[in-house]
Specification:
The complex is a heterodimer.
Chain A (H helix, E strand, L loop, with lengths): L3 H24 L7 H19 L7 H4 L2 H19 L8 E6 L2 E6 H26 L1
Chain B lengths: L1 H16 L8 H17 L2 H5 L4 E8 L4 E7 L1 H24 L6 H20 L3 H19 L6 H32 L4 H6 L1 H6 L3 H15 L8 H4 L5 H7 L6 H14 L3 H23 L4 H22 L2 H32 L10 H4 L1 H15 L5 H13 L6 H28 L12 H19 L2 H14 L16 H22 L3 H12 L4 H23 L4 H24 L12 H19 L3 H21 L3 H22 L11 H27 L7 H12 L4 H9 L1 H28 L1
Antiparallel strand pairs in B: 1-2
Helix pairs in contact in B: 1-2, 1-5, 2-4, 4-5, 4-12, 4-16, 4-21, 4-22, 5-6, 6-7, 7-10, 10-13, 12-16, 13-15, 14-15, 14-20, 15-16, 15-20, 16-18, 16-19, 16-21, 16-22, 18-20, 18-21, 19-21, 19-23, 20-23, 26-30, 27-28, 28-29, 31-32, 32-33
The chains are: A mainly alpha, B mainly alpha.
């Protein structure tokens, strides 16, 4: 596809998609959103770029290596471990932080969600890459 | 004890992964380990002789009666000493033998682990644990036999031995579980105390036969003996270790272990002598016409195993005593002979006795050592083999009903043994023929056989030294019978006369074979003609036939037509859900089905139309767009019920799907309809059925409440326990994280599948 408008828009939209995806991931715990939706959104950036420039040019190694897939699955495995050592496997473990008056809660389920985020990106990349190369 | 087993395991990994510079010490290291554990076990001899039993116990899965329980008693001590002693010699031998081969570290790893497994097997007193070690020895034997895996014959031989011993292993497991669940324990001591009860119960016969199957396959009894000669494809150190002294003796070991539990019945004394004596005769007879040195020794091994089995079956004090003596005798001479066979092979480049000869001048030491080992095999005085054979004759007479019969078979088999020993010596060493030596002499080769042969001689002269080890073992097998006297001269009695005629017969037979030029050739021809039923071929034919039978029948179900798969899935689901719905709730429809609010009804109407368009549209692009409408419509419905997460997900997935469809659209073949009227009607019918049942299910779901919905719990505890206000997300990443993990993995696998399928297709074109 050769559209100058889209080409320019794509540059900015790409960032927007990724940022928005991460935002959705972060807010997911308390408001609608989460790793799955966030991942899908972020992968739209990739798909968009691929549609415009074709998959061949940006068939980066990270896709065929399954970088995101591996990263995501490893994060998920990692998120299981705290619970495994401090109770039951997969049990959510939470740590409280107080940073400058802000009360932060960080837990292993969040890590899990990030893992899902990565896997979803990896999966849609791989789908898209393979189909457009075919 | 446990530390020793652990050491075998760890040092196995060490020889596999140790840095290259240290690799040349691998064999020495393991030989030292074997020697060290030999010394350790040797230090227990005085205690065990006084009746002490040392055992170590680790609770494993107590709920299932599984414990890790090792014990040094008389029997396990005897076996452990044999395994470690011969093991040490074999590793020294392997150091010389394996010098030129690739993948040595892998070889040493396998052999070390095999030794560890064998040691674990003989020390086990928990039967399940024993079974695990039993299978480990089968597994490592498979890996060792297939060591030269570039040769097809090696792979075939390894597969065959694994399959046969694995089959026996499974039978053994069932037998063990049968008895174990009857007794309620897998501990040997519990079994022994419940012995009478086991023998009286109805499970005795089936479990005994199953255990026997395990023993017969492992110890290469007729008709399962065929894997053993094939296993000679293995490197010679392996044959010397596994197929003479350790692995194949595991079956006999189990018979000795379980004799106090299962022995002494009519069944025990009926099956074992018959199978054992047939094996003995078959092995001895077949050995004489072989031309490959290793094959000769393989068949004589089968014969010896037969002897051990029938001795265990006779089940008197003398018989068990004979079995114990013969066990040691055979381990000594057979390990020595295999090592010598490997040496001759290396020196002359062949193992074919028709091409060997005259080695007495070139390898005098080898000749002497071989002669000693062969005399022990032939049972000539003053070797320990002579005492063994005398005891066997003495025991044979005691067999109930079959005594005389077995004695005759034993004499015939031994005549063959004597003949093959003399014939072998003449063929390889004495007859005049020049054979070129390929490599310079390496004394390390002869060291092991020399030690073993000299020991065979010394023990023959002073048999009392052997009784130190055998008495405690005898007590374990047959409690309370310890008096053990071994002597060379038994007096002029029936046994001596038989022995004399055996040697005479063997000598005459060997003389005929040596003198006559054509006799041996004729005999080989005769055997080829009349013993054409090669059990190996039978095995492989049966195997391929079973496979092809399974293939044809699997193809009926796994036919590879996607449309029929979908059809059968849908029909089956329809049927099952329909029946279940009818049984649970009847045909009545719920009364309150309202079309309120109007907006929702409208959306549903639109999606219904979109569905219809999808299925009847004549172009792909129309179908895709209609499907998009359908998807977005559904997301609107989610939104209406304020399931925001679901709605967003649905919208994005729908968008992505559309984009992907657009990408592949131009690559798909032209749209065309091939179906005739009847298949279309059939498909419509199936689709309607499935849709109808699904609708029914959805409608009924409003009414039927099987149990309290779990969603309440999630809503209540989402913030309290998981600190999240978004219940859907909390369910996904916390409450039901395991499900999500599974789904994510499935996704990843699917993506990899798509990627590799398409890559494969691209590579083809």
């Amino acid at each position: 596809m050769n559209s100058r408008i889209l080409n320019i828009a794509q540059k900015y939209l790409k960032i927007l998609f990724v940022v928005f995806g991460v935002l959705i991931l972060l807010r997911g715990h308390n408001y609608p959103g989460g790793g799955f939706i966030g991942g899908l959104l972020a992968s739209l950036a990739y798909v968009f770029q691929g549609l415009l420039k074709g998959a061949d040019k940006q068939a980066s190694k990270s896709v065929s290596n399954g970088l995101y897939l591996g990263l995501g699955l490893s994060l998920i495995l990692l998120s299981v471990l705290p619970g495994f050592f401090m109770g039951n496997a997969m049990q959510g473990i939470w740590w409280d932080f107080s940073v400058g008056g802000w009360d932060l809660k960080v837990g292993s389920p969040f890590l899990f969600d990030v893992g899902v985020f990565c896997v979803v990106i990896g999966v849609s990349q791989l789908f898209f890459y393979s189909l457009s190369r075919y | 004890m446990l530390i020793i087993l652990l050491l075998y395991c760890l040092l196995g990994f060490w020889v596999l992964w140790s840095p290259g510079a240290l690799k040349k010490y691998s064999a020495l290291l393991i030989a030292l380990l074997q020697l060290g554990s030999f010394a350790y076990f040797l230090s227990h001899v005085p205690y065990v002789r006084e009746g002490f039993i040392k055992s170590q116990f680790i609770s494993w899965i107590p709920q299932l009666g599984l414990d890790f329980h090792v014990q040094i008693d008389g029997l396990s001590l005897l076996y452990a000493l044999l395994v470690t002693f011969i093991g040490a010699l074999v590793f020294l031998y392997a150091k010389a033998y394996m010098k030129k081969y690739a993948n040595k570290s892998r070889f040493y790893f396998f052999l070390t682990w095999f030794s560890g497994a064998m040691l674990g097997l003989v020390l086990s007193v928990n039967l399940i644990q024993l079974f695990v070690f039993w299978e480990l020895t089968s597994l490592f034997s498979f890996l060792l036999i297939s060591f030269f895996n570039e040769k097809e014959s090696s792979r075939k031989a390894a597969f065959q031995s694994l399959f046969v011993t694995g089959f026996g292993g499974l039978c053994l497991l069932v037998g063990i579980v049968l008895i174990g669940s009857h007794v309620g324990s897998y501990s040997l001591s519990d079994w022994i105390s419940a012995s009478n009860e086991i023998k009286a119960s109805s499970i005795y016969t089936p479990s005994l036969i199953l255990i026997f199957l395990g023993v017969f396959t492992k110890s290469a009894q007729f008709p399962f003996h065929f894997w053993l000669p094939w296993a000679m494809q293995a490197p010679t150190p392996v044959s010397a270790y596994l197929h003479s002294a350790t692995m194949v003796k595991a079956g006999v070991f189990l018979l000795m272990r379980l004799n106090p539990v299962l022995g002494g019945t009519e069944l025990w004394m009926g099956i074992l002598p018959v199978v054992g004596s047939i094996t003995m005769l078959v092995g001895a007879y077949m050995s004489i016409t072989q031309t490959d040195i290793k094959a000769i020794f393989a068949y004589t091994t089968i014969s010896s195993l037969g002897v051990l089995v029938f001795l265990m079956g006779i089940d008197t004090k003398v018989a068990v005593k004979a079995a114990l003596v013969f066990l040691v005798v055979h381990a000594f001479y057979k390990a020595a002979l295999f090592m010598l066979a490997g040496y001759i092979d290396k020196q002359c480049g062949t193992r074919d006795i028709t091409r060997l000869g005259g080695l007495i001048k070139q390898l005098p030491l080898t000749f002497i050592v071989s002669a000693l080992a062969l005399f022990s095999m032939a049972g000539l005085p003053p070797m320990i083999g002579f005492i063994g054979k005398e005891l066997i004759y003495e025991a044979s007479v005691q067999a109930t009903d079959l005594g005389f019969f077995i004695l005759i078979m034993g004499v015939v088999a031994n005549v063959f043994m004597v003949a093959v020993s003399i014939y072998f010596l003449h063929r390889v060493f004495i007859r005049k023929r020049a054979v070129e030596l390929k490599v310079p002499l390496v004394n390390l080769y002869v060291f092991g056989p020399l030690v073993l042969s000299v020991l065979s001689l010394l023990l023959g002269v002073w048999p009392d030294a052997l009784t130190i080890f055998l008495e405690p073992a005898l007590e374990v097998v047959r409690a309370g019978e310890v008096a053990f006297k071994l002597q060379v001269w038994h007096g002029f009695n029936l046994v001596f006369v038989t022995s004399f005629f055996t040697v005479l017969g063997g000598a005459v037979l060997a003389w005929v074979l040596i003198i006559s030029k054509t006799f041996m050739a004729e005999w080989r021809k005769f055997n080829r003609q009349f013993f054409t039923i090669n059990l190996t071929d039978v095995f492989f034919t049966t195997f391929t036939q079973v496979i092809s039978y399974a293939v044809t029948h699997t193809k009926r179900i796994q036919h590879g037509y996607n449309r029929y798969y979908i059809m059968s899935i849908l029909l089956f689901t329809t049927l099952m859900i329909g029946i279940q719905l009818f049984l649970q709730t009847g045909w009545e429809l719920p009364k309150q089905v309202s079309f309120q609010p109007f907006v929702l009804t409208g959306i549903i109407g639109v999606t219904a139309i979109a569905t219809l368009v999808t299925s009847v549209s004549q172009t792909r692009i129309n179908a895709i767009i209609a499907m998009g409408v359908l998807g977005y419509g559904i997301s609107l419905i989610y939104l209406y019920y304020s399931a925001v997460d679901l709605a967003i997900t649905q919208i994005i997935v729908e968008t992505l799907t559309l984009i992907m469809f657009v990408i592949v659209l131009k690559k798909l073949p032209e749209f065309s309809s091939y179906s005739k009227k009847i298949p279309i009607l059939r498909d419509v019918f199936i689709a309607l059925c499935f849709g109808g049942v699904m609708t029914l299910l959805a409608l009924k779901a409003l009414d039927v409440e099987l149990s309290h919905p779990i969603s309440d719990y999630f809503i209540q505890n989402s913030y309290l326990k998981a600190y999240g206000k978004n219940v859907v997300n909390v369910i996904l990443v916390d409450f039901r994280a395991l499900d999500t993990m599974g789904e994510v993995i499935v996704l990843a696998v699917a993506a990899i599948g798509v990627y590799s399928l398409i890559r494969m297709k691209m590579k083809q074109s």
